[in-house]
Amino acid sequence: MKPQQHNSYEAGMLSPILLGLVSIFLAALAQILLKQGLRLMTFERSMLMSPEGWLALVQNGWIPAGILCYVLSLVFWLDALSKGELSQLYLLSSLNFVILTAVGYTIFHENMELLRVAGLLLILMGVLLVIRS
Questions:
Q1: Are 24 and 93 in contact (CB under 8 A)?
Q2: How far is CA 44 from CA 114, 120, 132, in A?
Q3: At a CB cut-off of 8 Å and minimum separation 6, what does 62 contact?
Q4: CA-to-CA distance for 126 and 133, rounded, in angstroms?
Q5: Under a CB-based contact definition with an 8 Å cutoff, are residues 63 and 34 in contact?
Q6: CA 9 to CA 14: how far, in whole Å?
């Protein structure tokens, strides 16, 4: 008789969808931190060609925090991909549009037009439909 295999989600592990959502949240947080850091300094691509430029980015604080969130997001994303379906998980990344548009409007005072709101609602409905499938 074979020993019964337990589903890793039942054994206290996170589901692929939850892992994907954590990854998406961390990726959105990374964008927010990077945006805030860039609001506090002038960025030019040429900064990446000198040690002084790299030092300015690191000393900003917000920039390294954003990069760290991206790295953590990647770790959760890899875990989600190893357990779940790519087609279902990848659709979750569209939630970044919803999260970042809401944050852009509330924190960074960016524009929010009716058509944008309608588009975001369509994205949310699509994500819900695919997750339920």
A1: yes
A2: 34, 31, 44
A3: 33, 34, 36, 37, 38, 40
A4: 11
A5: yes
A6: 6
How much is the pTM?
Answer: 0.81
Scan for tokens 């990647």, then name that residue: 74
| C-alpha separations of 51 from 6, 43, 58 in Å | 52, 14, 10
Whole-angstrom distance, CA of residue 8 vs CA of residue 18: 13
Residue type, 96: N
Per-residue pLDDT of the chain (133 residues; tens, 9 = 90+): 444 444 545 545 789 999 999 999 999 999 999 999 999 999 989 999 999 999 999 999 999 999 999 999 999 999 999 999 998 888 888 999 999 999 999 999 999 899 999 999 999 998 888 878 7
Name, in order, each residue with C-beta under 8 angstroms of 17's C-beta and a sequence gap of 6 or more: 80, 84, 88, 89, 92, 131
CA nearest neighbour of 95 among 64, 131, 132, 133 = 131
Residue 109 DSSP symbol: -
